[in-house]
UniProtKB/TrEMBL annotation:
Species name: Elaeis guineensis var. tenera (Oil palm)
InterPro entries hit by this protein: Ribosomal_mS34
Superkingdom as given in the UniProt entry: Eukaryota
Protein name: Uncharacterized protein LOC105036452
UniProt biased composition (Low complexity): 33-46
Gene name in the database record: LOC105036452
UniProt GO molecular function: structural constituent of ribosome
């Protein structure tokens, strides 16, 4: 039994020596490879100089700051040409960033339908608010005030 213990001890010592040798050689290789590579700060400076691309907003990100969650305001996808929706109803999920939306469709500034329809792609990114819808509301209220006077 003593001989078996001695053999096991010699094997453990040999394993430590081999492991130490490999560890030193890998450390040497690592130090040589890092000394020849270009400095890291210049690569990070190049990344910082690039402007970050902002995420586009989904419908609920756009309308969350409008009065009454944007009901009555016009919105459209950024890539649509002459198509927009006047928001009439929303069903907001608990997280406040997703949901469903209904609105009256406008094409080239003219109503395309009288009844509200469910808007598709409200959770996808790329929505914008059309500011002229607020101007029209402001103008119509002025006309009503003038007619009352």
């Amino acid at each position: 039994m003593a001989a078996a213990a001695a053999v096991m001890m010699n094997r453990a010592v040999a394993d430590k020596a081999i492991t130490g040798f490999f560890r030193q050689s890998f450390a040497l290789l690592r130090s040589l490879s890092t000394s020849t590579s270009p400095p890291a700060p210049s690569s990070s400076a190049a990344r910082e100089s690039k402007p970050k691309r902002r995420k586009k907003k989904n419908l609920f990100d756009v309308i969350q700051f409008l009065p009454n969650w944007g009901i009555g305001y016009k919105v459209a996808k950024t890539h649509w040409q002459d198509v927009s929706y006047e928001l009439t109803k929303i069903n907001l999920y608990k997280d406040g960033r997703h949901g469903k939306g209904w609105g009256i469709r406008y094409k080239a500034g003219v109503r395309a339908a009288d009844a509200p329809v469910k808007m598709s792609g409200v959770n996808k990114r790329g929505w914008k608010y059309i500011p002229e819808s607020e101007k029209k509301k402001g103008n119509s209220s002025k006309v009503v005030e003038q007619s009352l006077a």
